[in-house]
Amino acid sequence: SELRVGRGVWIPRKALTLEFYSPAELDEAVAVQSWFAKIGRTSITMRFDVYRVSDRMHRASGALTVVCVERETIRPPPLPEEVKAMLERFAAA
Fold first, then answer.
1. Could you give the 3-state DSSP secondary structure of residue 21?
2. pTM
3. Is the Cβ–Cβ distance between 34 and 27 less than 8 Å?
4. Most CB atoms closer than 10 Å: which of 41, 53, 60, 91?
5. In this structure, are residues 44 and 91 in contact, taking their beta carbons and an 8 Å threshold?
6. H/E element holding 87?
7. Taking a C-beta distance cutoff of 8 angstroms, is the pair 35, 50 a contact?
8. Strand 58-67 with 43-52, pairing
9. pLDDT at 2 over 90
10. Cα–Cα distance between 49 and 31 in angstroms, integer?
11. 34-53 tens-digit pLDDT
């Protein structure tokens, strides 16, 4: 909300990939581990893994890339430095 409303910066989805490794049961409890894999000049790529809670069986992995754009022009300005700094805490080493 701070980016969209306060700064007029949107982060629409650019790409989503997902690969399944084993089928989950209906109503199965899963845990999702996620992190920022890449924080670029205008984009952010998040990676995630999905595991069955009971035994950590790997169910799926994926990635989501979003791009920072100005609402009015849909042009990609650089991500604000303070936003990048906040995201770095959750980035892969």
1. coil
2. 0.82
3. no
4. 60
5. no
6. helix 81-88
7. no
8. antiparallel
9. no
10. 8
11. 999 999 999 999 999 999 99
Contact criterion met (CB below 8 Å) for 92 and 37: yes
Count CB neighbours of 56 within 10 A. Answer: 11
What per-residue confidence (pLDDT) applies to 58?
Answer: 98
Measured in residues, the chain has a length of 93
The 10 Å Cβ neighbour count of residue 20 is: 12
CA dist 40 and 81 (Å) reads: 11
Side-chain half-sphere exposure of 76, counting CA atoms within 13 A? 13
The predicted pLDDT at position 33 comes to 96
Alpha-carbon distance of 90 to 24, in angstroms, equals 27
